[in-house]
Amino acid sequence: MVIVGIDPGVSPAVAFVNGRKATAGRITQSGHVFSEAMLFDTLRSSPITHAVVELVGPMAGQGLASTAHFMTAWGLIRGMLVGLEIPYTMVTPQVWKRDLGLTTEVEDPADRKAAQKAAAVAFVQKWYPGLQLIRKGCRTPDHNIAEAVCLAVYGAYKLGYAEVSPALQRYLRAL
User: Fold this and answer.
1) pLDDT tens figures, 147-165
2) Neighbours of 136 (CB within 10 A)
3) CATH number of the domain encompassing residue 70
């Protein structure tokens, strides 16, 4: 069974988890521009059992143009899933991060966000060490890709749509 995790943020990413294997990447044309065609082709050509999409909304301090771009991408993703008849679950960042043990006790919101992104990268590097998180031309792991993998793992394990490794199952049960 293949579970897809989609992080529709500013730099959208998609990940596929199939048992102990994961593949992932950004769904952008150049820079941070969302590529609807790339996502559609990827979803259409993959044998997906279920999709997990991060349920997000406009953020405080975000400009009108970026909010419109962000929400348009989010709606297009949902439309593609419906059109391709791929069942999906929407989950808030607070829920999936808590359920995967990625929450932090940092008080400052900016520091907390950075810590949670780092925790997602560390989670993926630990459980899927062969997955490339550093994109070509970059020096640091891409937290958007890591979060897409985490969303797929959430769907696989917490929602029961697919298996994950026994060690990862034990880790998640202990949370």
Assistant:
1) 999 999 999 988 887 677 7
2) 5
3) 3.30.420.10
- Reduced to 3 states (helix: H, G, I; strand: E, B; else coil), residue 53 is strand
Strands (E), the chain: 2-7, 13-18, 21-26, 48-54, 88-91
Query: Domain span at residue 160?
Result: 2-174
Total structural domains in the chain?
A: 1
Contact call for residues 129 and 136 (beta carbons, < 8 A): no
Please state the pTM of the whole predicted model: 0.89
**Cβ within 8 Å of residue 113, ≥6 positions away:** none
**CA pair distance 29, 102, nearest whole angstrom:** 29
End-to-end alpha carbon distance in the chain: 24
> What torsion, rounded to 10 degrees, do the Cα atoms 2, 119, 143, 19 define?
-10
Do 54 and 8 contact (CB within 8 A), yes or no? yes
